[in-house]
Amino acid sequence: MKSVGVDAQSWKVFFTLFKLAEMGASRRTVKVSTEYLAERMALSQQTASRHLIQLEKKDWIKRTITPEGCLIRITESGVGELKKLYSSLQAVFEAAYPLSVTLEGVLFTGLGEGAYYITRDGYRKQFIEKLGFDPYPGTLNLKLTADYDVKTRAELESYPAIEVQGFKGETRTFGPVRCYPVIINNKVKGAVVAAIRSHYDSSVIEVIAPYFLRDKLKLKDGHKVKIEILTLP
Amino acid sequence: MKSVGVDAQSWKVFFTLFKLAEMGASRRTVKVSTEYLAERMALSQQTASRHLIQLEKKDWIKRTITPEGCLIRITESGVGELKKLYSSLQAVFEAAYPLSVTLEGVLFTGLGEGAYYITRDGYRKQFIEKLGFDPYPGTLNLKLTADYDVKTRAELESYPAIEVQGFKGETRTFGPVRCYPVIINNKVKGAVVAAIRSHYDSSVIEVIAPYFLRDKLKLKDGHKVKIEILTLP
DNA sequence: ATTACTACTCACCGAGTAA
DNA sequence: TTTACTCGGTGAGTAGTAA
Description:
- Two copies of one chain form a homodimer.
- In chain A, α1 crosses α3 (45-57) and α2 (34-41) crosses α3.
- The first copy, chain A, is 36% helix and 27% strand.
- Chain A is built from eight helices and twelve strands.
- The radius of gyration of chain A is 25 Å and the shape is elongated.
- Chain A has a six-stranded antiparallel β-barrel with strand order 4-5-11-10-9-12. A three-stranded antiparallel β-sheet of chain A has the order 1-3-2.
- Chain A has two domains: 8-93, Winged helix-like DNA-binding domain superfamily/Winged helix DNA-binding domain (Arc Repressor Mutant, subunit A, Orthogonal Bundle), CATH 1.10.10; 100-230, Riboflavin kinase-like (Elongation Factor Tu (Ef-tu), domain 3, Beta Barrel), CATH 2.40.30.
- Chain A is α+β, with helices and mostly antiparallel strands.
- In chain A, β9 (177-184) and β10 form a beta hairpin.
- The structure holds a DNA duplex.
């Protein structure tokens, strides 16, 4: 998920940076006394002063002290920080779909059918091309138990997905598959694969990844697995 | 100046609200454990929990606690708060002009010409109509001393202004005037009036207001006066 | 008038832990 | 597992004041 690069400690001075931007300091040099800034932000003059010092240390503003106040201009990197916040908000308000949704399911052992399907060359080539990885020959089956997770799984159908096309094999045809890039347990990148006509019901999801996830993440049947599904830009 | 309704004290929990929005909580109910939120924000689980409690108290989120975590949905007022921040940033990045600029000048007594001009009916009617107030028959003359202020005054020429049209009097013609709504000393609304061909040089500005400002703000010659010029939407 | 240092206070954060 | 309490330490904000 795209994220603002401000850490927990910087929130306060970041807010000051934002206030300076409101005063136009991102496009021009503005004259602001610490007293005036303090009044604007409902802070003490001393705190305003300290914030300016910290902003300068972070190289988010350029400051020139004059007898009548400070001449302040937000630097490029300062503007960059504000832009990060802006584009995150833009995504929140303007995007057609959420940037990501999270699901949780319980690991179980399937019938091994998943491995058969994803190793078909007609699929595999498309996985490599469209997902950017060669999947380990096997799927991680997750059972969705909570209402919330099943409902979220259902919503997924209406989000855009990476479409893997069906193809004709020697003896039968293989249907199209929808894929969603995911992050498994906040660590490993992979994808949820959902056959348009799944052999499981909608309370099950199948996850693929370039690794044998049971080893990589030390997973066993019955473990809870959290996946973050990244919807597409 | 347009401003975000979040003060410095609420900024921290507000930032948590923003993070929840990034997770999609502004458009749908999301399941988030305090542990997970804490990890996402580089905070402790306890702090995340407290922030959620505070957000709920402010009625910015609706929260349902379940054994597997919290079901969280940002309320309308919560979304409203985020939107305020969003539109402020939009103004910062997308607007052609700064929302406001501030100037500082030293009060001096002029020749009284200002009063003569602004009391001409041809001007006065337009002030009432376009500025929304009937100006006190006199102007406040401010001398701009610092380089910064003179430079800012010059930039003003290129910003959009309220145009007061010239007219023909009985014996002479009166030229067009550009007006900028201002806030004087952070308290009183008024306007800067600038004749297209001013009788003063560009290091002087003339301010009008519905009141006798020298009384209203207890001003005397030599006092510094701060004005915030609001550029137009 | 400014900015910003030194104390001091207090609120916030996080560890431990209960439910 | 969860959430969220108490409590103690720390860092952020303010007052006083120097430069």
